[in-house]
Amino acid sequence: MSMNTKNTRLVLALAVALGTCAGALAQQPAANSSSTMATAPGKALLTDVVKTTATVVGVDAGTRVITLKRQDGKVVTMTAGEEVRNFPQIKVGDRVDVEYGRALALELRKGNAAKASANESAAVVSAPQGQKPAAGAVREVTVLADVVGVDTANKIVTLKGPAGNVVEMVVKDPAQLANIKKGDQVQAVYTESLAIKVSAAAAKDGDKKAKEAAK
């Protein structure tokens, strides 16, 4: 599947914020997050994962819209697509576990061996019929861009994407910058994953008291 110019610019722009984009997710309230960053000559990899939970406070069977209350008290809505096969099982009081992960891998390719390109793929999976509702999605975007300029004084590398769009990438590491030359290429692979799972319904206060009294 070919990727539009907007997505191409987005992936290349992610490289500019390579050291800071994990922090944006980490600042989200009521979420557990972890991030890693690794570099090697001509390569860089950034990954981060955010895990959070919410409680179902409303279900509209007609529109398949679910209203969720997050751990921080904020109420949000989401639409359960057809891939959520067991939608009728979702009840008010259920807990939804959400895991969101993303990774950005950058690799310098010496010389201009291939034509600049962009490709995108996506896949959706769902829980087997009869089990608790769950769904997952994975999206991967790959962009190969040409290095059309290197400004060593300002530590800026200018990249030209397959649609002709130009993006400036900041390279703070002097050793990495010294290795990049005009005519080289940079490949960016951005992977995004989302997993949602409905857990058992939360016990009501009356049920809890009954269980405690029975002990």
- Sum up the overall morphology in one term: elongated
Give me the strand/helix succession. HHEEEEEEEEEHEH
Alpha carbon gap, first and last residue: 60 Å
Radius of gyration: 22 Å
The overall pLDDT, averaged over residues, is: 76
Q: In percent terms, what proportion of residues is strand?
A: over 45%
What's the β-strand tally? Answer: 10
* Relative helix content: 10-25%
Number of helices: 4
Number of folding domains?
Answer: 1
Task: Name the poorly predicted regions.
Answer: 1-10, 14-30, 203-215
Write the layout of secondary structure elements.
Layout: H1 5-16, H2 21-26, E1 32-40, E2 43-60, E3 65-70, E4 75-79, E5 94-109, E6 117-126, E7 134-151, E8 156-160, E9 166-170, H3 174-178, E10 185-201, H4 205-214
Structure overview:
With 215 residues, the chain is α+β, with helices and mostly antiparallel strands. It has one domain. It has four helices and ten strands, in the order ααβββββββββαβα. It has helices spanning 5-16, 21-26, 174-178, 205-214; strands at residues 32-40, 43-60, 65-70, 75-79, 94-109, 117-126, 134-151, 156-160, 166-170, 185-201. Strands 1, 2, 3, 4, 5, 6, 7, 8, 9 and 10 form a ten-stranded antiparallel sheet that branches. The termini are far apart. Residues 1-10, 14-30 and 203-215 have low confidence and may be disordered.
